[in-house]
Specification:
By secondary structure, this protein is mainly alpha-helical. Helices cover about 65% and strands about 5% of the residues. It is built from 21 helices and three strands. Strands 1-3-2 form a three-stranded mixed sheet, sandwiched between helices. It binds zinc ion (ZN).
């Protein structure tokens, strides 16, 4: 079979796979948003059957052979060649795992999540501990089937973020620790109380109106994007012109829905601005975790928490929200950037956030490199929070059991959250050389910002690795100092602290 014939056949099979995927994405969306709870059992059963069908399409030997042939072909276009090599790399990660080992691990992941939920509810780390150990052992075993000479944790890091290494993360987190911890301690010492409006009661109706206002401001398209509600905000990409987000409304924490919206629309805009010719192809969605997070955090923090973002919006928000009647724009800006060390990563402010990630990174790395065991890990966790954030969790549900990731065997995922913020600072630095960002926001011209992101980042989908993209756009590879400097400047000015 020549290359063109192989490609045609491959695309046919890929479309078939996509149709199952779209069905599952839709069912998933439905069950996280509007589907009645009582129907969950039957729905889950049907989804499991569909997933099984999808899996057999993935492991179809003919499909695999086509990927191998195409990844080795030298007469494909550049984008097709990159796409096929990416797919072969993905395939090689799991193809040598014996089926019984694979199935057993999938079962362990499900059990891990179920036990974790229980353990979290009752703050019972000893209940979760044996599962955590089995998940670590199972992950090590899965990776041992690859012909990879790197350490297990090094492979895991690369799975979640192409090109990232332990050395690069070590350097990054060393800077985070050295530069940010003293500022966080100084802000705590200053003891400035949280502005009262942050916890004021704001009726959901008023919050929905604000969300609609921001949607228009961000120019998140109505005919290609949807906003819905779910317990945990998320975004989901169905196709080039169908990208959806969810928010959650808390009556006594109304800024939560605002920033969840901006964050998730950042993700959705990324997917929505990928070159439409890539629709249905692997590269339409193969951006790394860190890259995706860079776009949501650029939206949420670098743009969404700036004064320029709110300068034209804020008067309209005040009209909608009674609780803001006597709050000036400057007070509002201070409030949405208020720094407070607390236990939960997902509620953390922009400055303390990377420290939450640092704790998880250090623990994961030590677990996989044999410097720590699961025994007493809850205390290790608490010690680290005490030393970096000056707080000590009193229960494991507000400590080591707070995140779902490890219970599903996702090790190496956490560091991408902090990395995304750091990428975004480097992109932002370049964007501000090309555009007068503040002026564009003040003049309600968010389309120009979206246009820059589209031309420089979004349109390429997952075609380039983060390092290739950073180099292409900013002229240098990953440089964490943009992020550290951005945080130090912003928060020492906001809190009038000189270190
Ligand atoms: Zn995100």
């Amino acid at each position: 079979m020549n290359t063109q014939e192989a490609l045609t056949l491959f695309r046919e099979k890929q479309l078939r796979i996509n149709s199952y995927r779209l069905a599952l994405t839709t069912m998933n969306w439905d069950s996280s948003t509007i589907a009645p709870k009582k129907g969950a059992d039957y729905r889950n059963h049907m989804m499991a059957i569909l997933s099984g069908e999808l899996f057999s399409l993935y492991i179809d030997p003919e499909y695999i052979k086509l990927i191998e042939q195409l990844a080795a072909a030298d007469d494909l276009s550049e984008t097709e060649s990159i796409e096929m090599k990416q797919m072969l790399k993905e395939l090689n990660k799991e193809r040598n795992i014996p089926k019984d080992v694979f199935v057993k691990f999938a079962q362990l992941q499900r059990d891990g999540e179920t036990i974790w939920e229980k353990a979290k509810e009752t703050s019972d780390y000893p209940l979760f501990k044996p599962y955590l150990q089995k998940l670590i052992d199972g992950t090590k075993r899965n990776i041992s089937y690859r012909n990879d000479t790197r350490s297990t944790y090094a492979s895991l890091i690369d799975d979640f973020e192409t090109d990232m290494t332990i050395e690069k993360y070590d350097e990054f987190f060393a800077l985070v620790k050295e530069k940010l911890v003293p500022l966080i301690h100084a802000i705590k010492e200053a003891n400035i109380p949280a502005p009262a409006f942050l916890s004021a009661s704001v009726p959901i109706q008023q919050q929905r109106a604000v969300v609609e206002l921001i949607r228009e401001y961000l120019q998140y398209p109505k005919d290609a994007g949807l906003i819905s509600e779910s317990v945990h905000p998320f975004s989901s990409s169905f196709s080039a012109f169908d990208n959806r987000v969810t928010v959650r409304y808390h009556e006594n924490n109304f800024t939560s829905s605002i920033f969840a919206l901006i964050h998730e629309v950042g993700h959705a805009t990324y997917n929505g601005q990928v070159n439409p010719e890539y629709q249905g192809r692997h590269i339409a969605n193969s951006m790394t975790y860190g890259m995706h997070e860079s776009q949501s955090r650029l939206y949420e923090n670098m743009l969404g928490r700036s004064k320029a973002f709110w300068s034209s919006l804020y008067p309209k928000v005040v009209e909608l929200v009674d609780a803001l009647k006597d709050v000036s724009l400057d007070e509002f800006i201070f409030g949405i950037n208020y720094v407070t060390a607390q236990f939960y990563r997902i509620e953390a402010d922009e400055l303390t956030y990377p420290l939450h990630v640092l704790v998880r990174y250090e623990i994961e790395k030590d677990l996989f490199e044999g410097n720590l065991t699961t025994e007493g890990l809850d205390e290790v966790w608490a010690d680290k929070y005490e030393s970096y954030l000056d707080i000590r969790p009193q229960s494991t549900s507000e400590g080591i059991l707070q995140d779902v990731h490890w219970s599903g065997g996702a090790f190496g995922y956490f560091p991408t959250y902090a990395l995304g913020s750091a990428y975004s600072a480097q992109f932002m630095n370049k964007m501000s050389q090309d555009l007068d960002i503040d002026k564009l926001m003040e003049n309600n011209q968010f389309d120009q910002i979206n246009g820059w992101l589209k031309d420089n980042i979004h349109t390429f989908g997952g075609l380039y690795t983060p390092e290739q993209l950073l180099l292409r756009i900013t002229g240098e590879t990953f440089n964490p100092s943009y992020y550290i400097d951005y945080l130090l400047n912003k928060y020492s000015e906001l809190y009038k602290i000189k270190l």
